[in-house]
Structure formats: C-alpha cells, structure tokens
Design brief:
about 190 residues, alpha+beta, 5 helices, extended
Length: about 190
C-alpha cells in the first residue's frame, strides 16, 4: 500500500516477516558491535616515495590523540550516568528478550541486585552467581531457581546456595532497583576494555 506522498506503509505482518526471515538470521552470521564505530576524519592513505613531511606526521598524531580524548570523554559521561542510576554498560550488552532457555536449562550466569544496610543507609549491590537448577517456571512470568553465589558476593553467615525468584518484570531494568537481574557479562566487559 502506498501513501499519498508516495511512501510505502509497512503492515505489522510484513515487518514481523522481515524481522524473522532477514534480521534474526543475520544475528547468527554477523558480529554485534560492542561500541559504535567512530572514524574521525584524517589524512587519506596515499602511496608515498621517500620520506614523509613532519607536518603530516604531527597531524596524524594530533588526530589520534583527539580520537582517544573523544572516546575517554564519552566513557566518563557514561560512568557519570551510571553513577546516577541511569543504565550501565552491562545493561546495554544484554539480550532484549529474557533468557528462558538458558535459565530453565540451569546454564545461566546470574547478576542480581540486592539491598544491603550500610549503617543507616540502604545500598544496592550487584551479586554474581550461577543458576544450578530451575525448580519452577511459570510460563512468561517468572522462574524459581537455585543459585550458587560467587564467594566475593557472600557476607558472613550468608548461605552459598539460595533459592531465588526471577521475575520477568525485573529483567534488565533501565533504572536500577531491588531484585533486578540480568546475565553476568563482567568477563566480556573486561575482555573489551
């Protein structure tokens, strides 16, 4: 169907068909980028005979320095937003659909947000563990799982294995709040940085 301006109006069925038949298969073939590709303009790569002018060498160095400074400024801005509770790098790396198959199979590395009392303040802290068993699953709403927590996350007197309820509504929240959960991707972030 064409609109009066000559543009094509896509029906929901056509969009879904395109997503299922084109986009999803490409996700298996193409690599998903971790950061946006940023290519700042510079000198073109030309064949050269002999030596290079010092001005050209200095310009290349300054452009590389500007590129690094630009990336550092964006990383600092992201960290400030994370500190204020608006998203974080790990949230952006998560898959959009909640991970039904890997959680129900008991092969899921969990990152869950807990509240701890620190004096008179309540502090939110991400704790990492591994789902070792899916006890119960209510289709589309929640899982009840057994989690073996990493020793770094445990405080004195806390059990190493606990039973947790993972609600679909708490999967990978934009704003951090108690009981939010996501996949533990710290190892990926460390490899990237």
């Amino acid at each position: 169907m064409k609109t009066s301006s000559g543009r094509y109006t896509y029906t929901p069925g056509k969009l879904l068909d395109h997503f299922v038949n084109i986009v999803l298969p490409l996700a298996d073939v193409n690599e998903v980028l971790v950061e946006a590709p940023i290519e700042l303009p510079g000198l073109p790569e030309l064949y050269q005979l002999g030596t290079r002018a010092q001005d050209s060498i200095e310009l290349d160095k300054s452009l590389n320095k500007n590129s690094v400074q630009f990336r550092l400024r964006t990383m600092h801005k992201r960290e400030k937003l994370e500190h204020c509770g608006y998203g974080d790098e790990l949230m952006e790396l998560q898959q959009h659909l909640w991970p039904e198959e890997s959680v129900s199979a008991g092969k899921f590395k969990l990152d869950k947000l807990f509240e701890y009392k620190d004096g008179d303040k309540v502090v939110l802290k991400w704790c990492q563990g591994k789902v070792i068993e899916c006890i119960n699953e209510k289709q589309g709403t929640h899982f009840v799982v057994k989690v073996k927590w990493n020793s770094k996350c445990l405080r004195d007197g806390h059990p190493e294995v606990t039973t947790e309820k993972l609600m679909r509504t708490n999967w990978n929240l934009d704003v951090q709040s108690y009981a939010a959960w996501r996949e533990d991707l710290y190892e990926k972030v460390l490899k990237i940085n």
